[in-house]
Write a structure and sequence with these properties.
There is one protein chain. By secondary structure, this protein is of the alpha/beta class. It is 24% helix and 32% strand. The chain is built from ten helices and 19 strands.
Length: 383
C-alpha cells in the first residue's frame, strides 16, 4: 500500500512535487536552488548565505552522518528547508550526536524526501531558480491553489536586504582557530596578531577561524557598522564576509562605508557578498543569475597565473565584469559560465573573490587567500 504524502513542494509555475515530510511541521515560501556538494549538508543548512532559500541536494545520501554542534556554521539553521531524494536514514558516524530529522524539527526547518531531484534540478537549470512553497503536514492536508498563489506573490530576492537580518547585533571578539584531531578547535592567539575587523553580512564560523588561523585578532562588527565605528578599533585590515540577499539592497548602507575605507592605505579582503559589496563600492554593478552557483566542485581559473582551483560557491548574484572601472582588475573567472569570480585594485592591497576560500564544506584549494591577506597586513607594518 502506497504511503500517503506528508509533504508538498509547489512551484510558482504550478508544478507540484509530493513527498515524505521530516523536520518541522508547517509551510515556508522561498527561492529554490540546488547544491551539488557530496558532503556538508549541516554546514550548508547553517550557512547564512542560504537565507530565504530552500536547498535541493543533488547528492542522494543526505543525513547519513547525522549532525554535531561542531559542524554548525552559525547558531541556527538559516536555509528555509531542504529537498532530498531519499529520506534521511539513521546516522552512522562516530561524531554524530543527533539525527538530521530531529535536529531540523528542533530548529524549525522543513524537509521533504522521496523527490526526483534530477528532474527538479534540470527544471531549475533550464528555467532559473523558482519561487516555491514547501509544506509539511503529517496528515497530508495541502491547499494547493493557495500554495501556488503564495509562491507567485512572493517578491523574491531582488531588492531584498537579508544581510541585516542574519548579521550579529553587537560586536564580539573571535580567537578560535582551525579544527584539529581528534575533536577540538585551536585557540589561535599569535604573539603579534594582526588587528582585523570582520564585517558580518552573514559570516560563517569557519571564515572567522581561517582569519584567526592566519594570524588575526578578529573583531566582528554588524553589517550596518559605519567607517567611524570600524576605524575606532584601529584595524590593520578589514574583511567583508559572505551573506545572503541582493547586494544592491545591502549596498545602500555598506557601499558608503567601504568607499570611506578605500581612500586609506588599508588591506581589504572580501568574500562572496563581500566581493559584490567591494565591486559596487568601486563603481561596478551586480546582476541576478538564472540559478546561481551552489556547490563544492566549481572550477575557477586565476586569470593572472592560469592556475585552476576547485572551489566552494554559494551565490545567486554576480559581479558584471564589464562594468568594473579602470584600475580594477578581474582576477578569477568561472570555468562553468565565464562569470566573474574575483577582482583586485591596482596598486592597492584590496582584493576579493566570489567563492568561499574557507570551504566547509568543500576543497581547500583557495585557503592561500587568507595568507595573502595576512601578508598584505605584514607588508603594511613594515613600511
Amino acid at each position: 500500500m502506497q504511503q500517503k504524502p506528508t509533504a508538498c513542494l509547489a512551484l510558482a509555475d504550478g508544478t507540484i512535487f509530493y513527498g515524505h515530510g521530516f523536520g518541522a511541521v508547517g509551510e515556508v515560501v522561498a527561492e529554490l536552488v540546488f547544491n551539488t556538494a557530496m558532503t556538508g549538508y549541516q554546514e550548508i543548512m547553517t550557512d547564512p548565505s542560504y537565507a530565504a532559500q530552500v536547498v535541493t541536494f543533488t547528492f542522494p545520501h543526505i543525513g547519513n552522518t547525522g549532525v554535531t554542534p561542531l559542524d554548525d556554521e552559525s547558531a541556527d539553521p538559516v536555509a528555509a528547508g531542504i529537498v532530498v531524494k531519499w529520506n534521511p536514514t539513521e546516522p552512522s558516524n562516530w561524531r554524530s550526536v543527533s539525527d538530521l530529522a530531529n535536529w531540523m524539527e528542533r530548529r524549525g526547518r522543513i524537509g521533504i524526501g522521496g523527490i526526483d531531484t534530477r528532474r527538479l534540478t534540470r527544471a531549475i537549470r533550464q528555467q532559473g531558480s523558482p519561487h516555491v512553497v514547501l509544506a509539511h503536514h503529517p496528515e497530508g492536508r495541502f491547499d494547493i491553489e493557495a500554495m501556488i498563489a503564495r509562491a507567485r506573490a512572493w517578491p523574491g530576492l531582488v531588492g531584498m536586504d537579508l544581510a541585516r537580518e542574519v548579521s550579529c547585533t553587537q560586536s564580539y571578539r573571535w580567537h578560535e582557530g582551525a579544527w584539529s584531531w581528534p575533536d577540538r578547535f585551536n585557540d589561535a592567539r599569535p604573539e603579534h596578531p594582526f588587528r582585523v575587523v570582520a564585517i558580518d553580512y552573514g559570516a560563517k564560523r569557519n571564515i572567522l577561524r581561517s582569519l584567526a588561523e592566519s594570524g588575526a585578532d578578529v573583531t566582528v562588527l554588524p553589517a550596518t557598522a559605519t567607517a567611524e565605528e570600524i576605524l575606532a578599533h584601529d584595524p590593520e585590515g578589514v574583511f567583508l564576509s559572505n551573506g545572503p540577499g541582493d547586494p544592491e539592497a545591502t549596498g545602500e548602507y555598506a557601499v558608503p562605508m567601504i568607499r570611506s575605507l578605500l581612500v586609506r592605505d588599508m588591506p581589504i579582503f572580501g568574500v562572496c557578498l563581500g566581493h559584490q559589496m567591494l565591486a559596487l563600492a568601486l563603481g561596478g554593478q551586480t546582476v541576478k543569475m538564472s540559478h546561481g552557483h551552489h556547490g563544492a566542485n566549481h572550477p575557477v581559473r586565476d586569470v593572472e597565473t592560469g592556475k585552476v582551483e576547485i572551489t566552494s560557491m554559494n551565490h545567486g548574484f554576480a559581479v558584471d565584469a564589464q562594468t568594473l572601472p579602470e584600475g580594477v582588475m578581474e582576477t578569477h573567472v568561472s570555468l562553468f559560465d565565464g562569470s566573474n569570480c574575483g577582482l583586485r585594485v591596482k596598486d592597492k592591497p584590496v582584493f576579493s573573490v566570489q567563492y568561499h576560500p574557507e570551504a566547509s564544506p568543500g576543497p581547500q584549494d583557495s585557503a592561500y587567500l587568507f595568507q595573502r591577506f595576512a601578508q598584505a597586513m605584514q607588508d603594511r607594518r613594515g613600511r
